[in-house]
Amino acid sequence: MEFTKMSGTGNDFIVIDSFHRSFDIDWPRFARTYCPRKISVGADGVLVLSPSDVADFTYRIFNADGSEAEMCGNGARCAAAFAVERGIAGSSMRFKTLAGIVEARVNPDDVSIRVTDPHSLEKDISIAVDDRDCIVHHVNTGVPHTIWFTDEIDTLPVNELGKAVRAHPRFSPAGTNVDFVQALGKDRIRVRTYERGVEAETLACGTGAVASAVISHAAGQVEARSIRVDMPGGTLYIEFTSRNGDYTDVWLTGEVSFVYNGTLFL
After folding, report:
1. Distances in Å between the alpha carbon of 142 and those of 31, 132, 153?
2. How far apart are CA 178 and CA 165, in angstroms?
3. 90 and 136 assigned to the same domain
4. Angle CA(73)–CA(77)–CA(81) in degrees, nearest 5?
5. Which residues are catalytic?
6. What is the number of domains present in the chain?
7. Could you tell me the residue range of the domain that residue 225 belongs to?
8. Using one digit for the tens of pLDDT, what is the confidence trace for 110-137?
9. Is the pTM of this model over 0.90?
10. For residue 234, what pLDDT is reported?
11. Same-domain pairing of 27 and 63
């Protein structure tokens, strides 16, 4: 099986073209086999592109633990660039995800996607973590995200706290991704994300960047509707429309890179 290794602002993926050739594959098992680092290809997840009757293609994302995610922002941006490179779609496209139809634009220097409108926004949720009471916020940007504001983002134990919040009964049974956010001004934030399915901190998270920007605006941490999000793997840019507490027309933009092509011996 041929594959392409891609990176979207530090999120890395094994990308499979199942559009031109279909594969009878147990994708969750495939992800568990080939995503572990040092003993295999290594990736945060597997992206599979296949035909669709309602859009340019269907996009599926399988996390490193084999679970299938509804959506992955950086993965979607990689999928869009891959689709253009393989002739599956033009530079402007629509593709089907478990979270709904996503629009994308592949630009000369970056890739933008219009994500599904955020929903289920909740502010000021009180939970107990490590025997202390904490205030967090929650929103679904295709997948669930919980936001924890902090002024100590460099020293915060992201993996330990992220694991505790991810499995907290308040967010069961689906669990949640966890974003630790520090506001840097009216239009800029820093974010570190613990990703559900990867079960560790990742270098970047597209849906997490969107969730962090939206919640930062809703909570008054930022004022602008065009926000720079600095993550360990690089910078993402979020733009949205806000009216009466609703967030619509949300675009996520950032760089995408093709790392290498390879062949897997199944």
Report:
1. 21, 29, 25
2. 7
3. no
4. 165
5. 72, 205
6. 2
7. 119-254
8. 999 999 899 999 999 999 998 889 999 9
9. yes
10. 95
11. yes
